Amino acid sequence: RNGSLVLCFAEEDRDGLQMLYDRGIANGVKDLKILEKNQVLELEPHVSDQVVAALFAPTGGIVCPFELTIAMAENACENGVEFKRNAGVRSIEKLEDGYRLVTESGELTAHYVVNAAGVYSDEIHNMVSEKKLHITPRKGEYCLLDKAAGTHVSRTIFTLPGKFGKGVLVTPTIHGNLLIGPTATDIENKEGINTTREGLEQVLKKASESVKNIPVRQVITSFAGLRAHEDGDDFIIGETEEGFIDCAGIESPGLSSAPAIGEMVADILKKKYDLKEKEDFLSTRKGITDVSKFSLEERNAWIRQNPAYGTIVCRCEMVTEGEIIDAIRGPLGARSLDGVKRRTRAGM
User: Fold this and answer.
1) Pairing of strands 53-57, 4-8
2) At residue 202, what are phi and psi to the nearest 5 degrees?
3) How wide is the angle at C-alpha 344 spanned by C-alphas 104 and 154, nearest 5°?
4) How far apart are CA 347 and CA 31, in angstroms?
């Protein structure tokens, strides 16, 4: 819960800041405040001197999107959800009671289908509905800086939103790095996650307009992701056809919204189809043991019982052999080097 600031750089834009404040209050966001320039610079000395005012949300927080997603998936797996990997959907046929899905690895039948296929959610939707959707992949490029730069700002720094979203942000990550980005470029290729020189230059330029003296020499990697932008410019959540529920066009702030969207979709299914909650639902997840959080005494005791935790495999991130074994053998275990990396940070 590091808090966030939405910066305003012109007096004539104060109305936009006030609108965000009013909307936040109406939505029940606690402790919102509009701060003046001197208050902003007192909180965050590296914010640009051009700042006029800012919306401060002390309850704002950050999360690791990989760890959140994996945690949700592992918890689902522990509660009996079966995952079919490498099973891209090729076609969907409506049956009298449900659907038949032809996938890359065989056929499945289902009473209900929830379409949460990101940039491909229009293609899945269009297999079953006459009312067509169209998703445009909106590329966002990011730069990640070394942990030495991680304290350059303490809070997540946004600028006032524009046509293409919240603009380039500057934020610490939960692992102590500094993250800047993303851009917003509409492309055709739904697998187009390459970075570009122009995109990364834009990230650095835009970030420097809101936060000064960013140590750009400490950029350690760059990457890109795709947001699923639907032509109607909004989330599409609901039953499109009998037994077929869409979660389409979930772009920013999709990650923040995901738990609420999950509850909303579960509620739609529960009410319409009289589904019952699982009686012995496991509400917690064990996860991977992170020995770096132990005291020296706790760590030594753990290593005596589990010697693999005494072997460091990744020195930069201090990841042990034991954690890598956990990542592979756990529920829904990793099946690739990238899977290990997302679960443990080995190789980050």
Assistant:
1) antiparallel
2) -65, -40
3) 115
4) 39
Helix 337-344 and helix 65-78, axial crossing angle in degrees, nearest 10: 100
CA distance 306 to 323: 11
CA distance linking residue 156 with residue 59, whole number of Å = 11
Neighbour tally for 225: CB within 10 Å: 14
Burial annotation 150-175 (CB, 10 A radius, 16+ → b, else e): bebbebbbbbbeeebbbbbbbbbbee
Residue 26 backbone phi and psi in degrees, to 5: -60, -30
Dist. CA 126–CA 128, nearest whole Å = 5
DSSP state of 315: T
Does pTM top 0.70 for this prediction? Answer: yes
State how far the Cα of 164 lies from the Cα of 242, in Å rounded to an integer: 34
Q: Summarize pLDDT for 42-70 with one digit per residue, the tens.
A: 999 999 999 999 999 999 999 999 999 99
Q: What angle do CA 201, 204, 207 make, to 5 degrees?
A: 145
Tens of pLDDT along 231-260?
Answer: 999 999 999 999 999 999 999 889 999 999
Listing DSSP states for 22-56 in one string gives HHHHHTT-TT-EEEEHHHHHHH-TTB-TT--EEEE
Q: How far is CA 193 from CA 190, 227, 255, in A?
A: 8, 11, 18
